[in-house]
Design brief:
This protein has 119 residues and is of the alpha+beta class. The protein is 40% helix and 12% strand. It is built from six helices and four strands; from the N terminus they run βαβααααββα.
């Protein structure tokens, strides 16, 4: 398995569970604090293309910032490029944990999906 980039917000309980799962399964990774080192526009664009998922999946739709900005309504009127630029402005807008490997992009923590893609 190639090197894994684990992007997290350490106070997030889902991130903590995901990290524990990685550790218990002996999977090595580089950790990155999403608030201190926000994913860049170029990274997000690359990961979005690589993932094959819809861009909305990259947004932390349950986050306070997402809600306070009224993004549920605004995203539909924004271009893909505008959405990527917005995501790059603040790590708290990005769904986490985010796992990046050569072969997979995982958003959020779903154990079965992680088992399939990381083991």
């Amino acid at each position: 398995m190639s090197k894994i980039l684990f992007i997290e917000y350490p106070k997030c309980t889902t991130c903590q569970k995901a990290k524990k799962w990685l550790d218990e399964n002996g999977i090595s990774y580089d950790s990155r604090h999403i608030k201190e080192e926000n994913p860049t526009y170029a990274e997000l664009k690359k990961w979005y293309r690589q993932s094959g998922m819809e861009l909305k999946k990259f947004f932390n739709t349950s986050g306070l910032l997402y809600k306070s900005m009224g993004l549920k309504e605004k995203l539909t009127d924004m271009t893909e490029d505008e959405q990527l630029k917005l995501l790059a402005t603040d790590g708290m807008l990005v769904k986490r944990p985010l796992v990046i490997t050569d072969k997979a992009i995982l958003i959020g923590f779903r154990e079965r999906e992680w088992e399939d893609k990381l083991k």
